[in-house]
């Protein structure tokens, strides 16, 4: 192992990535950021579906649109793209050989679909017993819904998220609301990353590989956290509260004289300082509002009083006053404001990488900050099939003649 690999947490790991769209690619990108060699297998001529999910598209050095959709760019940096037709016997053989040279296989095909190609876990395990094989589907490998296709939007509804997200039904605009990003996909990618890392640690101790069965619905239900336990403790399904909190008051957005702020009061002392900053100290000693349980019970009376109080100052006046008083608060930023924020800039979340289509690709870096093996950004999101020849030569030892033959047959 060379010195550069030692500086990468997963520099000794190769991942064969048979996933597309978001959940699987998000997992694979995490592993790539941590130094794994990720080989992304794509359909010849088409590739990952998200390559075409635009506009917007990456622009070249002359400002012209390329073929690379911004959606695809979000989840595929650090990988090598190999085009390969797995529906053909020769393509299947190449995947099997690549799996033998890999530590991890990721896939998000429908349940049982890869078995007919001999690319399922049981088949590949025969050739590489210590293989870690992670399947990502909508509903998992078992249960009455296992054969259903899983889409993030549907999972957000089925898994309970939309029953607790959105404005209250009795208010204007009330009703179920999905998240602004595909949270069940992204969280499944994150949980899959954790599972793969745990399986690698187990393999390193015991030499044993294993199968990982990840499902969007499982993840969506699990990630409801305290809302789950609120229900299990009370027997009452939680309701939508919009930007308010079911257990804490005040913990919501308020309109100022020129915009909105978030006030996240976590204890009675913070509440007292909040109303004192607004010139309403009597609201802290009123027995209906003195403690959080009482404020929750009398929310309908208190919140309108607080709303009137907040409207008396500007957004920046409130933020300055509450920060000085030690009351958690913040603005509601659009993405222009996010990337102009000095804290976001100081943390290095924005980055540019040179791209083979010309110009630079603007990306958001990993939030993982590690002192010895920080994330590395050695490769931009690859062009379709950009690394096919290099991987076939370097990993499988194929000759130029054999690669040319595979191309002529449309296998790669």
TrEMBL record:
It holds the Pfam family CoA_transf_3. One of its GO terms (molecular function) is CoA-transferase activity. The keyword 4Fe-4S does not apply. InterPro entries: CoA-transferase_III_domain, CoA-Trfase_fam_III, CoA-Trfase_III_dom3_sf, CoA-Trfase_III_dom_1_sf. Keywords: Transferase. Transmembrane segments: none annotated. SUPFAM superfamilies: CoA-transferase family III (CaiB/BaiF). It comes from the Bacteria. This is CoA-transferase.
């Amino acid at each position: 192992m060379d010195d550069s690999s030692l500086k990468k947490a997963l520099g000794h790991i190769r991942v064969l990535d048979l996933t597309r769209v978001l959940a699987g690619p998000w997992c694979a990108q995490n592993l790539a950021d941590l130094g794994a060699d990720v080989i992304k297998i794509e359909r010849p001529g088409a590739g990952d579906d998200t390559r075409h999910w635009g506009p917007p598209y990456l622009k070249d050095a002359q400002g012209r649109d390329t073929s690379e959709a911004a959606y695809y760019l979000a989840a595929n940096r650090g990988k090598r793209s190999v085009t390969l037709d797995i529906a053909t016997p020769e393509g299947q053989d190449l995947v099997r050989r690549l799996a033998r040279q890999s530590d991890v296989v990721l896939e998000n095909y429908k349940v049982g679909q890869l078995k007919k190609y001999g690319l399922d876990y049981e088949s590949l395990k025969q050739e590489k017993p210590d293989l870690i094989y992670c399947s990502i589907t909508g509903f998992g490998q078992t249960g009455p819904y296992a054969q259903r296709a899983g889409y993030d939007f549907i999972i957000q509804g089925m898994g309970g998220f939309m029953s607790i997200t959105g404005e209250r039904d009795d208010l204007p605009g009330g009703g179920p609301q999905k998240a602004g990003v595909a949270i069940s996909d992204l969280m499944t990618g994150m949980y899959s990353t954790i599972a793969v890392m745990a399986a690698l640690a187990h393999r390193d101790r015991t030499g044993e590989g294993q199968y990982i069965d990840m499902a969007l619905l499982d993840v969506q239900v699990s990630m409801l956290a305290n809302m789950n336990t609120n229900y299990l403790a009370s027997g009452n399904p939680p309701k939508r509260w919009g930007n308010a909190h079911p257990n804490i008051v005040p913990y919501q957005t308020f309109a100022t004289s020129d915009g909105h702020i978030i006030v996240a009061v976590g204890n009675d002392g913070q509440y007292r300082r909040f109303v004192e900053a607004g010139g309403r100290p009597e609201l802290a000693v009123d027995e209906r509002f003195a403690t959080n349980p009482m404020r929750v019970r009398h929310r309908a009376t208190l919140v309108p009083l607080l709303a009137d109080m907040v409207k008396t100052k500007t957004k920046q006046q409130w933020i300055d006053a509450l920060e000085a008083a030690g009351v958690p608060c913040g603005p509601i930023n659009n993405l222009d404001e996010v990337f102009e924020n000095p804290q976001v800039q100081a943390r290095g979340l924005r980055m540019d990488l040179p791209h083979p289509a010309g110009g630079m690709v603007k990306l958001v870096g990993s939030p993982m900050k590690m002192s010895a093996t920080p994330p590395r950004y050695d490769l931009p999101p690859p062009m379709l099939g950009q690394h096919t020849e290099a991987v076939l030569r370097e990993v499988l030892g194929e000759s130029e003649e054999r690669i040319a033959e595979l191309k002529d047959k449309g296998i790669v």
